[in-house]
Amino acid sequence: MKTILFIHQSADLYGSDKTLLYLVESIKDEINPIVVLPEEGPLTDELHKIGVEVLIIPVIKVSRQLIASLDIFTIPFKVFKAVRILKKKLNNRKIDIIHSNTLAVFLGAFYSRKHKIKHIWHVHEIIKHPKIVAKTYPFLVQKFSDCVVFNSKASAEHLYKKRPKLKEKSIIIYNGLDRNKPEISDENKEILRNKLFKNIKVSSIIVGLVGRINKHKGQRLLLNVFEEINKKNKNIYLLFIGSTTQSQTFLLDELKKEIKIKKLNNFVTIVNFQKNLWKFYDCIDIVAVPTTDPEPFGLVAVEGMLSKKPVIASNHGGLKEIVEHNKTGFLFKPKSEHDLKCKIEKLIVNQELIKRFGKEGEIRAKKEFSLDKYINNFKALYHSL
Q: Any idea which fold 186-368 has?
């Protein structure tokens, strides 16, 4: 049985965190996985539940904050220290493959090179800023990987522009998942909707945005659009589901302040990060993914489609490969409040269109982005190395 060392950047349960959990859980009977994380969190809890070994050590994560603080010059020393810690924790166990589950971590790249282990670099990002990082990553990925896995054509093309030769040792594997919870009953749906919003009617429509609260997921953009819609239509509600990182709690405070200033407290609700999202998707009527930066994939769009909801998404990045415009939802011009408003209004006046898009979305998600397809592609890759 092969032993694969997975190295990941966080212990949360958002997009790339979830895809790692799904992958490890699905292969653990055939492959021995060990997961390296920088801290304890929801992901470590889930991994422990399924009996997967987790090592907590520095993974050498490159972030905007690291660049801004000029700590980037300390990276070589941190890498050397982390490599030694990892070697000690592994205690001479044989590792067949190292799978770095994000561009942002360096530990796997250098550990694999030092100990002559096959290295898969799994790219979940489209990094454009800071420019020094955007220019450096293609070189590092080319030099320190035996195989590069991209989660979309969009994330692949972004690096191909700088390093065309990456095509020779790369593949595209779309993220995949299955809905593992049945749809909640209409009764429970109404109970939850009434917990979220006071005096909400059965005929009311909830627009939902699921994702970490940051500057790029589009919460402020959607809020501005919703304010305009609310002036004419008081039967529409807005639900944000997600939390901030510890260093960016001010963004949540700013969002709450903006809701209050716009006098939308009765129409907009913020719910912290949830492990069980499916019941919330069941209460949402329209899923919005208004990212202001290109999303490398967009797992939320697939989750919405698996929940039979139409998806309105920014027309850039990997979202263009998931949402079929005018069939499973709408794609709108990125950052355009006017276009986003038009797309939402097209749906809220047409319940039949909401149902049709939702049905087509479920069919597409199950066919193109299934967990089986995702897992089988990785199993084939692991066995080929």
A: Rossmann fold (3.40.50)
Strand 205-210 with 236-241, pairing? parallel
Distance separating alpha carbons of residues 81 and 152, to the nearest angstrom: 33
Ranges of each domain in the chain: 3-177+370-384, 186-368
Task: Look at domain 3-177+370-384 and name its CATH class.
Answer: alpha beta
Residue 70: pLDDT band by 50, 70, 90 thresholds?
very low
Same fold: 3-177+370-384 with 186-368: yes
- One-letter-per-residue 3-state SS of the chain: CCEEEEECCCCCCCHHHHHHHHHHHHHCCCCEEEEEECCCCHHHHHHHHCCCEEEECCCCECCHHHHHCCHHHHHHHHHHHHHHHHHHHHCCCCCCEEEECCCCECHHHHHHHHHCCEEEEEECCCCCCCHHHHHHHHHHHHHCCCEEEECCHHHHHHHHCCCHHHHHHEEECCCCCCCCCCCCCHHHHHHHHHHHCCCCCCCCEEEEEECCCCCCCCHHHHHHHHHHHHHHCCCEEEEEECCCCHHHHHHHHHHHHHHHHCCCCCCEEEECCCCCCHHHHHHCCEEEECCCCCCCCCHHHHHHHHCCCCEEEECCCCHHHHCCECCCEEEECCCCHHHHHHHHHHHHCCHHHHHHHHHHHHHHHHHHCCHHHHHHHHHHHHHHC
Question: Residues 6 or more apart from 192 whose CB is under 8 A from it?
Answer: 184, 279, 280, 282, 283
> Whole-model pTM?
0.93
Under the banding of pLDDT at 50, 70 and 90, the label for residue 71 is low
